[in-house]
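User: Fold this one for me? It's YeiH family protein.
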Amino acid sequence: MQLQSRLNPAFNTHRLLPGLLLTLGLSLSALLLVQLPLPGISTIGPLTLAMLLGIVAGHLGSDRVETLSTEGLQFSRHYLLRAGIILYGLRISFDDLQSAGFNALLIDLVIVVGILATAAWVGIRWLKLDARTAVLIGAGSAICGAAAVLASAPTIRVRQQAVPVAIATVVLFGSAAMLLYPWLFAQEWVQALFNHNGFHNGEIAFGRLVGATTHEVAQVTAVAATLPADAAHTAVVTKLMRVMLLVPVLLVLSQLFGRDDAASDEPSKLPIPWFALVFMLLPLVNSLELLPPQVLDLLHQLDQLCLAMAMAALGFATRISAIRAAGWKPMALGALLFILLLLGGTAMTLLLS
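Assistant: Here's what I get for YeiH family protein.
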């Protein structure tokens, strides 16, 4: 009880269990369903499916269920989310990063900065979205999909209802990329473009494009399964490099929006996202092989479970009416960013590969 009070006075230890059991059941259901040969399920992934199941449960559940589950749901959205982001770092090793080369990192860096800047500029100036929503959509497109949205949301103190809207853009346009890239790779004119003048390894260059521009890690993995081995490996590693850029992005966002809050009526400045800093240390643990493979595999599963429980908790608090109320502008921004990822990513890949 004392430990829980130190974590957050709002949490009452004996009232955590109902909400945790609820999110655990929803997330395990999602993880189970994606293993089944059901049409369309594998394309959205377990995290998004956990959120969708949470939305359904939230609409069907009674007020009593919601009241009993409140503290466990808050715990899942706050602490389990951070635990999942931290453990995500164990998926990355320095050997993987080195194998992709400096060019992959440079492409990722330009993509992330360009997409975030475009999201902020177009979203605020032209689409008249609030700054936090525009940046949240940009983070999902620029870095690592739903995980980036979830990590960025508490950092910039975005409205809770903006999170599923941002994730919806990731699901829609990330799935579009997942279907488009295998088709493009099979086209002769694309292969000729990526092998122009004999100076480029077309397959590896295409792998960099996939990793640098597809929204979710799971979506990159799905595309990689359709590519030759070298291209597939390059795609996944390039994507993991993008994931690592989440940390500096969160640090910058915490300072930018912390300064905005300090200049307004907000009572305090945002803290530096400590969980992102811990995330950066885990690739070192992975690279030094400090953990046995069995333990590493278990932690990967725990990581996915924590993130799925956080997504289920988010979905439970989401109402379809709030997503409809967001209108067409978030989707328009997501579409623009998708086009920019495809065209700008191709140009950058051909230039630097």
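One thing worth pointing out: The first helix runs from residue 2 to 7.
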